[in-house]
Amino acid sequence: MGALRIGLIGLGSMGRHHARVIRATPGMELVAVADPGGDRFGVADGLPVLPDVRALIDAGLDAAMVAVPTVHHEEVALALAEAGVAAMVEKPIAHSVEAGRRVAEAFSSRGLVGAVGYVERCNPALRALRARLDAGDLGEVYQVLTRRQGPFPARISDVGVVKDLATHDIDLTAWVADSRYTSISAHVAHRSGRDNEDMVVGVGRLANGVIVSHVVNWLTPFKERVTIVTGEKGAYVADTLTGDLTFYANGTVTSAWDQVAAFRGVSEGDVVRYAIEKREPLALEQERFRDAVVAGAGAPGNEIVTMDEGVATLEVVEAVLASAAENRTVDL
């Protein structure tokens, strides 16, 4: 089989990176690009800039990458499904749970590979973390805490910080802990004059009893991307900006300080920062999508984020917004 013929729709901040990575991925050939707003980043590199998804489909595709604004995900994805084209849609899968379900059903009913672009699952720190949790290295997992903070990104115009950023934390938390959300309680704030929320704090619980906490905003003057998993034997800290994974072990050193010795908790132990292979997450994500398309929908071993998983994450995202709007805990 020759290289997959790939189309890309959406040539903005994310589209330009997808174009670069697709061109560098063996077994994939970028044959068509589309964006009704033009090509301000010079992504086309000699290809004609097509006006819409219909023109993209007419180029003859094996698969497509959808990097348009969230509000257009459903329309574009449904057109691709109708044409029998496998697709990966940037997160979130759609602008609403109902739309996401329609997209997921359109691909599954036709036996097409459909994926959602939650690239954090391909981050080396989180992959190493998940592998160690699966091996039981932390013992029982108690808590997952995430912090995702930084300045406002000029690329965003149609959604708030919950659907743009917190969606990453919700997906990676459920994946890392291998469990679904059962409840969420959240508060949001509007501090920068935009219509959509720019800060959110949320706490919740997973089906396996793990408690979770998320702090996400666009108003911090430094960038932070941290996931902390605390458990029976200590805590892992995954920094997805640097791709580093550090383990803080529970200590076993006895204390002569009576007040400390009487406290039945944990103490500071050894600290280890692991040496792990660091590949660009987007490159691994595209390779996984390529392999899934070649193998076909339902093939064992596919490591894509499925559209059903994308819908499940969007259900939690909408629960976060409902909780904040109604000042209550939402059960899922």
From TrEMBL:
<feature type="domain" description="Gfo/Idh/MocA-like oxidoreductase N-terminal">
    <location>
        <begin position="4"/>
        <end position="118"/>
    </location>
</feature>
<dbReference type="InterPro" id="IPR036291">
    <property type="entry name" value="NAD(P)-bd_dom_sf"/>
</dbReference>
<dbReference type="Pfam" id="PF01408">
    <property type="entry name" value="GFO_IDH_MocA"/>
</dbReference>
<protein>
    <submittedName>
        <fullName>Dehydrogenase</fullName>
    </submittedName>
</protein>
<dbReference type="InterPro" id="IPR055170">
    <property type="entry name" value="GFO_IDH_MocA-like_dom"/>
</dbReference>
<dbReference type="InterPro" id="IPR051450">
    <property type="entry name" value="Gfo/Idh/MocA_Oxidoreductases"/>
</dbReference>
<dbReference type="Pfam" id="PF22725">
    <property type="entry name" value="GFO_IDH_MocA_C3"/>
</dbReference>
<dbReference type="InterPro" id="IPR000683">
    <property type="entry name" value="Gfo/Idh/MocA-like_OxRdtase_N"/>
</dbReference>
<feature type="domain" description="GFO/IDH/MocA-like oxidoreductase">
    <location>
        <begin position="127"/>
        <end position="236"/>
    </location>
</feature>
<dbReference type="GO" id="GO:0000166">
    <property type="term" value="F:nucleotide binding"/>
</dbReference>
